[in-house]
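Reopening: Tetratricopeptide repeat protein still failing for me.
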Amino acid sequence: MMIYPGQNHNEERLLRRLQQRYENQFAAGTRVYFTVAEFLQLAASYEEEGMPKKGIEATAQGVAQHPFAIDLHLKLAQLYLDNHFFDKAFDTLAKARGLAPGDIEVELLYAEALIAAGDVSEAMVLLDFLKDGAGSSSLSDILFIEALAHERNDAYEAMFYTLQQSVVADPENQEALERFGSCTLQCRKYTEGIAFYEQLLEQNAYLPVAWYNLAQAKVYMAEYEEAVEAYEYAIAVDDQYWQACRDCADLCMELQHFQKALKYYLQLLEAQGSEAEAELYVQIGQCYLQLDRPSAAITFYIRSAQMDPLNDEIYFAIGECYAAQGQWMNAVQYFEKTLGIDDTREEYLGALAEAYYNLGNTDMAVEYIREAIALNDIEARYWILYATFLIDAGQAEEALDVLEEAMDTAPGAEVLYCRVACLFATGKRNAAMYWLGEALTEDFEMHRSLFELMPELETDASVINLIADHTWQSPNY
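Support: Ran it again with your exact input. Result attached.
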């Protein structure tokens, strides 16, 4: 049995015992007595676990034991309806209508069954009849079912406005609010939806689903910071609103608000406990890595790898963490493990090449960077790494040849500046100054990369003067 976030473990244990007691009766060949509430619990638990057949069987036994319990009849009819057993649903509803004539819940479920079976006109007649004299809460429920009728007819505009009326009638109708939120996105009525949610929340700020819907609409309008704020209000009102928590964390991650993303991912982890999936541990690890806490990141990545041992991206992330700490031997170990799972990713080969380079093993570094280039020869970074390895190995002429080849497949300022460094390294100063001028013209802002390749050029008067002459070309001048 699944343990859902926020579910009380004692309640879960009691529910497990109830299921065992129910299922043991079949082995014993007897029928055990259960209360109406227990049958409803059994039906709900089997439904949540994706076992509708068992849910139907348990509820049908409940109806047999409690033939006058309207709640069990409604639940059985709903299960039949959800699983497209329309004839059985109508038979059960006929009995329910006989037991409770005019009961609003029974009539609404009957209308829903008519809609599902395609008899929308008859359903609309019944719903119009039910509206007469209905209170605000009942009217909200009636309008919600009416919206389903519009959906069945693909009349999404009418569905949108009917759901809006349903929420106005009863702002605490969570089902209507949730469906209105998805309908807002489906109809792309983001601006109209935002205005409605804001007005609704001015009247009652304690509507977590309204805050969540507002956040969703804000995301689609690219108002990301306001979306985060709305998600946080939803969580503040309902601290177990896990979907809001998840979506807020994911959005914060995209916005690079890593500390805030970490906060909500950790809340999810605490709530889910042993049911947490590997992906959540990965996301927490990513936050820690971005917050320059690679040791903490490794802890969560390793836990994720234990749960998903064939995920190459997790091992790569662990390797990146060790690389960030300068633990190159460990980095090599995990990058090689990554390639053992997938050897077709050039970024894995490039990372392994850099790790070997930092261990002083230029031969292995060159071997792997060549493999990376063979997979992706339009990525300038790999050519520059290749040239850098050769320059540091005292093979500047060979590095120049590499960069000549790079200019054909990955042209751009990055390669130009690296070529300038090679020319300086080989004593070809005049050519270096010429190509530096070309590079400065193409991308002035990138000239700092030249000093990263050859720090001594930062004090070279001719180089500094040439850069100064090009300063006026910079858009930031």
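The two ends are 65 Å apart (CA to CA). If you still see a failure, please send the error message rather than a screenshot.
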